[in-house]
Each structure stands twice: as structure tokens, then as C-alpha cells.
């Protein structure tokens, strides 16, 4: 006999945690099922553990920049095994803590893979059958298939974050967040790093001008970035791996790179293939993404909702997952028609220094036919950069000519991972450029530069 619930949540990441706890707090009966350790990508395999490794690389970079400027630390280096051990002080306790929180909220937690057997029911690996008035798909994302011979030799971001020892030669396939951030970590830990990116440039979701300025740092730390280069296969050899690629920028010339480790950094897709969505009448589009209405509800099965990376309605970011979950719960509880609001969501790649973005890009603003002014400058001579001996610091800010509203901000350099939040606040809550310019920020801080950027 099937166990009955008000809500079944598939997954245990940010969206799953927020939705399940809110539903349980409202007195509803909730079940959560995940075949992976409880906690999800951000806490276990993504942003949180990655940022802990970035901290180690940041210290090394601080020492390098300040050497000869009052700092002497000739033996400063990353001890990789110890850095990973430090990371595990955070990630290790997460699954047990999460399971305890489920129990405290009266949520039934299942360590199993769930598959739909009907629009309102799932079956777990162990044979249990669960049914519910509503089912939330919050299963996160997985590395996208690459489609070349030898892709099975690549490790994922999750496996990278568990490496006990750091190999000497590392190839990263792809040029987005994972490639940019991981390369900045391991290069400063002493590895020889090569990035093979099929696209025209690194970090395609960020402003091209600012990415161009940031590339100085890739060169400075010895990362070999090869854009317009498509990987065609990976072979295992006696010495490690041989990555075969083709440089489209050079008339299709073949490229070979030897490596001790090859990392998948070429994008992620919703992890929903195992769900047997057809049995639930949950439709997908041609790209395999769930077909959802504006309320994060399946267009073909009103009992099913999705949130976070599984939904792919907003940017693939942790705050979006949390926001989606809150919207879904509101729609389930009050029968309303609540829509997610993705205005003013900042995005950061934690390179060293970081690069950040919020709102419209210059190209998007032009395509919308908006009349706007652009303030853009590379400013390594500003105090914020000079006191850190940082050579990369720049910005591009877009302001609507008619309303004086900030419509986009793009920053690279020290502290921009924090400063971008103030621009996000302005965009989300309708603050004008004049509002920001007349705000008195603590000085000297990264925020105190905002007036000059406008």
C-alpha cells in the first residue's frame, strides 16, 4: 500500500529544503527522497566547498601581490590535502545535520531514487510507493553529456572537490564558471592548467570587455586558455591521459594535450532523466527541459511543480532555487497564482579577483531598444586596487536615460562579489543612480567606489 502525503519532494538541495520545511511548518505531511547524500549541490558539491578552496588560493594570491610591499612569506604554499580536509569540516556534517532537521520537522526522508509511476505517485528503489497531492521536482543538475570518445575518463566537479592529491597537469574541458574558478584555485596550488573552450571566449555569461580584462590574471598565473577549441576525444595512456582537440581558430588544426587529470567543466543540465517523467505526464521541450507555466507548474500535470536547476526558469543560482521553492509552496498552500521574480539577481564567478554581473548586459539593453548611458573604465589606479597591489579592477554600469534607474552593472576586481549586491538591490527595488550616488558608504571600502562608477 502506498504511503500518502501532501507533498513529495524529489531532491534534497536548497529548493528541496526550503519547500519541505515550509510545507511541514504549515502542518502538511511531507516526504523527501534523494539517492545522493542529503544537502544538495551547493552545500556538498558546489558553491560552499568551492569557496573554501578559493579562500586558500586567495591567501596565496595576497602573499604574491604583497611580496616586496611589506610582506615576506617565501614558503607560502597550498597544502592540498590539508585544504581538502578543511573543506570537509564543513561538508562532512551536512548530510547528518540535514537528516536531523527533517526529523525535527516531521518530514519523512528516504535515501532512495524516486521514479514516477503515475501523475501523483512515485516508487522508490527499495520498493516503497508514495503518493501525494503535489510533487516537487527539485533534483538539481548533472554534468551535460559531451558526446566524444573517452568522456568517461573525465571527473565531475563533485569528484574534483574530493581529490586527496592534486595532479601536476590538469585539463579543464569547458570555459564557464567551473573552468574559471577551478583553474584559479589549482594554478595557485602549483598545477599546470590548460582550458579547452569551444566558444569564442571564457565566461560567456559575463560582459566581454570585463572578461577581457580578467584574462590578464589567467595569463599571470600560467593558465593556458585555448578558445575556439573543440575536444574530440580523450585517451588513457601509460602517463595519464591524452586529450585530442581541434583548434577551429587555426583552420581546424589538431591539438593534443597531455594530462594527469581531465575535468568536466562544460555545463550542466537538469538531472531528471531517471524520473520516468512520461509516467507522470510531465512534458519536456526539445532540449529536454521541463515544460512549466509561469507558476513553476507542469503544463501537462498540474500536480507537479519544479524548482531550482530542475526548473531552469531563472539563472542556475542557489538564491534562485530558494526563491523558486517559496513560490511553489505559496501556490500549493493558498491556491494563488504566484510568479517568480528574477529581477536583480547578482551572479559571481569566484576567480581571483572575482567577476560579477547583475541586470541587463549592454547588448541586451540595445536589443530592447532602451536609451541608456554607459560608464565603463579599467581603474587599477583607484585606491581600492592600489592598496591591494591588484592590477585588474574595472566596471561597466548601465543607467536608463529617462528614469535614471540602474539597469545593469558589471564589475571585476577586489570586493566586487560584495559590491554587486548593492547594484542588485537598486535594480530589484527601483533605486536610481542618484539614490546610490547620494548614499554615504563607509570609506574606504569597495562600496565607496559606487558613486564614481555612476
Lay out the secondary structure.
Elements: E1 3-10, H1 14-25, E2 30-33, H2 40-45, H3 47-66, H4 80-91, H5 94-104, E3 108-110, E4 114-118, E5 121-124, E6 129-137, E7 141-143, H6 157-160, E8 169-173, H7 177-188, E9 192-196, H8 208-220, E10 224-226, E11 229-237, E12 240-247, E13 253-259, E14 261-264, E15 268-270, E16 304-306, H9 318-334, E17 347-349, E18 355-359, H10 362-367, E19 372-378, H11 383-386, E20 394-400, E21 406-412, H12 416-429, H13 433-437, H14 450-453
Parallel strand pairs: 1-2, 1-6, 2-3, 6-16, 8-9, 8-14, 9-10
Antiparallel strand pairs: 4-5, 5-6, 7-15, 11-12, 12-13, 17-18, 18-21, 19-20, 20-21
Helix pairs in contact: 1-9, 3-4, 3-7
What do you see in this structure?
The chain is of the alpha/beta class and 454 residues long. Helices cover 31% and strands 25% of the residues. The chain is built from 14 helices and 21 strands. Strand 11 and strand 12 form a beta hairpin. Helix 1 packs parallel to helix 9, helix 3 packs antiparallel against helix 4 and helix 3 crosses helix 7. It starts with a strand and ends with a helix.
Amino acid at each position: 500500500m502506498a504511503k500518502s502525503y501532501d507533498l513529495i519532494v524529489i531532491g534534497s538541495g536548497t529548493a528541496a529544503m526550503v519547500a519541505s520545511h515550509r510545507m511541514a511548518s504549515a502542518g502538511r505531511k511531507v516526504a523527501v527522497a534523494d539517492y545522493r547524500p542529503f544537502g544538495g549541490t551547493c552545500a556538498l558539491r558546489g558553491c560552499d566547498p568551492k569557496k573554501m578552496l578559493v579562500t586558500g588560493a586567495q591567501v596565496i594570491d595576497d602573499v604574491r601581490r604583497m611580496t616586496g610591499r611589506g610582506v615576506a612569506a617565501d614558503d607560502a604554499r597550498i597544502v592540498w590535502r590539508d585544504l581538502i580536509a578543511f573543506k570537509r569540516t564543513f561538508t562532512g556534517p551536512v548530510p547528518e545535520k540535514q537528516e536531523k532537521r527533517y526529523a525535527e520537522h516531521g518530514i519523512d526522508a528516504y535515501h532512495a531514487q524516486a521514479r514516477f509511476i503515475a501523475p501523483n505517485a512515485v516508487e522508490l528503489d527499495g520498493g516503497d510507493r508514495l503518493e501525494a497531492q503535489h510533487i516537487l521536482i527539485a533534483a538539481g543538475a548533472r554534468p551535460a553529456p559531451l558526446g566524444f570518445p573517452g568522456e568517461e575518463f573525465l571527473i565531475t566537479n563533485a569528484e574534483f572537490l574530493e581529490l586527496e592529491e592534486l595532479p601536476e597537469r590538469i585539463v579543464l574541458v569547458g570555459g564557464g564558471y567551473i573552468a574559471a574558478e577551478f583553474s584559479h584555485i589549482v594554478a595557485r596550488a602549483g598545477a599546470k592548467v590548460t582550458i579547452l573552450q569551444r566558444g569564442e571566449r571564457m565566461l560567456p555569461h559575463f560582459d566581454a570587455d570585463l572578461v577581457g580584462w580578467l584574462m590578464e590574471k589567467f595569463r599571470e598565473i600560467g593558465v593556458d586558455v585555448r578558445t575556439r577549441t573543440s575536444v574530440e576525444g580523450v585517451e588513457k595512456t601509460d602517463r595519464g591521459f591524452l586529450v585530442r582537440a581541434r583548434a577551429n581558430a587555426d583552420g581546424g588544426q589538431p591539438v593534443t594535450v597531455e594530462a594527469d587529470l581531465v575535468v568536466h567543466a562544460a555545463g550542466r543540465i537538469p538531472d531528471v532523466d531517471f524520473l520516468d517523467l512520461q509516467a507522470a505526464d510531465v512534458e519536456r521541450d526539445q532540449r529536454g527541459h521541463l515544460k512549466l507555466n509561469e507558476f513553476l507548474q507542469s503544463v501537462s500535470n498540474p500536480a507537479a511543480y519544479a524548482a531550482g536547476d530542475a526548473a531552469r526558469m531563472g539563472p542556475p543560482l542557489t538564491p534562485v532555487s530558494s526563491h523558486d521553492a517559496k513560490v511553489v509552496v505559496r501556490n500549493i498552500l493558498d491556491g494563488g497564482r504566484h510568479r517568480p521574480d528574477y529581477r536583480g539577481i547578482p551572479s559571481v564567478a569566484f576567480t581571483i579577483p572575482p567577476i560579477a554581473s547583475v541586470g541587463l548586459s549592454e547588448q541586451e539593453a540595445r536589443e530592447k531598444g532602451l536609451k541608456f548611458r554607459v560608464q565603463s573604465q579599467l581603474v587599477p589606479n583607484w585606491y581600492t586596487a592600489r592598496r591591494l597591489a591588484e592590477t585588474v579592477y574595472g566596471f561597466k554600469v548601465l543607467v536608463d536615460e529617462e528614469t535614471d534607474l540602474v539597469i545593469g552593472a558589471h564589475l571585476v576586481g577586489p570586493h566586487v562579489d560584495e559590491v554587486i549586491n548593492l547594484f542588485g538591490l537598486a535594480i530589484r527595488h527601483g533605486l536610481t543612480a542618484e539614490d546610490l550616488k547620494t548614499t554615504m558608504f563607509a570609506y574606504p571600502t569597495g562600496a565607496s567606489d559606487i558613486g564614481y562608477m555612476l
